[in-house]
From TrEMBL:
Alphabetized Pfam families for the sequence: APH
UniProt cross-references to InterPro entries, sorted A to Z: ACAD10_11_N (IPR041726), AGP_Transferase (IPR051678), Aminoglycoside_PTrfase (IPR002575), Kinase-like_dom_sf (IPR011009)
Domain of life: Bacteria
Residue ranges occupied by any Aminoglycoside phosphotransferase domain in the UniProt entry: 24-267
Family annotation (SUPFAM superfamilies): Protein kinase-like (PK-like)
Stated name of the protein: Phosphotransferase family protein
Length: 326
């Protein structure tokens, strides 16, 4: 990364010609995007920021950084606990890729730490209740929204649209996945009727939530957000594949499902949740296969991406069991 070019751009964007970069370090994680810890001296005071930009190989379904910046701004205005969005560079002239800068938030996001530490978020039940409230604030954002016009028109039927999107991705990958196709057909046969659309985070799960001892520090990673059925986010968070070994804690491996839904507070059709949890499992299997393909193609050699592909068979076993019980 061209640190001198970045410093010059930040100085202009912040209005402080004397801005200095005191540290720039890539953060761990971020299989789809890159995050950099950015420490600066601005107006004589130390500031702790995060620079977020694209990974070398991007997923076509991921929003651009300018679009994610808009989503972060809309969420913050709606009262969602997110890092403050600060500056956006929409072109590639500075560091070779678009990026944005946001305030750095302190806390724990690593999922295997989150699910094992019952003190985070004020205790398990309190934590998932707070997460439910965050999700309700997200779902309070409804179309139409001129600032989110890039999301397009809401699908007429979010459930059938989700099935069709996953089928397209399986077809594009070219690798036969008969279990996942069978699961999609089971979903198609029992698809729920459509509901009025809301903004769905579409990756609201343990690992994308930062917690501290008091509660929720930040909801992160908005690159997949879009209009849809609110049960999609509820099912994604509660799906077994996102419990990180703590299967009995049905809300993200953190706490009880009832406490999460009580915190959410909006009407929930419990009969829809198993359908969306099955779709979540299939979706994660498709994403895991795509991540492995990024490594195998040579676009982005990564042990993390390669190991992600090894999750697919276990997810397929879950798909078989869940489809039978649907």
């Amino acid at each position: 990364m061209d640190e001198a070019a970045l410093r010059g751009w930040l100085a202009q964007a912040s209005g402080d010609a004397g801005l200095r970069i005191t540290a720039l370090t890539r953060l761990s994680g971020g299989a789809i995007q890159q995050n950099w810890a950015l420490d600066v001296e601005l107006g004589g005071a130390a500031q702790r920021w995060v620079l977020r930009t694209d990974a070398p190989a991007v997923l076509a379904v991921s929003h651009t950084r300018p679009q994610e910046f808009s989503l972060l701004s809309a969420a913050r205005e709606a009262g969602v606990t997110v890092p403050a969005p600060l500056f956006l560079c929409a072109d590639s002239s500075v560091i070779g890729r678009p990026f944005f800068v946001m305030a750095r938030v302190e806390g724990v996001a690593a999922p295997h730490r989150v699910v094992k530490d019952a003190t985070l978020g004020g205790g398990r039940a309190a934590c998932v209740a707070a997460l439910g409230r965050e999700l309700a604030r997200i779902h309070a954002i409804r179309p139409p929204r001129a600032d989110l016009g890039f999301l397009g028109d809401p699908p007429a039927d979010a459930a059938l649209a989700a099935i069709a999107a996953l089928r397209r991705r399986l077809d594009a990958a070219g690798t036969p996945r008969p279990v996942l196709e069978w699961g999609l057909r089971a979903l198609e046969r029992k698809a729920p009727p459509p509901l009025p659309p809301v903004l769905c985070h579409n990756d609201f799960r343990t690992g994308n939530i930062m917690l501290d001892a008091q509660g929720v520090a930040a909801v992160l990673d908005w690159e997949f957000a879009g209009w849809g059925d609110p049960h999609a986010d509820l099912g994604w968070f509660c799906a077994k594949c996102w419990r990180f070994g703590q299967v009995a804690q049905e809300a993200g491996g953190i706490g009880p499902r009832d406490a999460f839904l009580a915190g959410y507070g909006l009407p929930v059709d419990a009969g829809r949740l198993p359908w969306w949890e099955l779709l979540a499992t299939i979706r994660w299997a498709v994403i895991a296969a795509d991540q492995a393909a990024r490594h195998l193609s040579g676009q982005e050699r990564s042990l993390e991406l390669a190991l992600t592909g090894h999750m697919v068979p276990e997810l397929e076993w879950d798909v078989l069991a869940m489809a039978e019980a649907l």
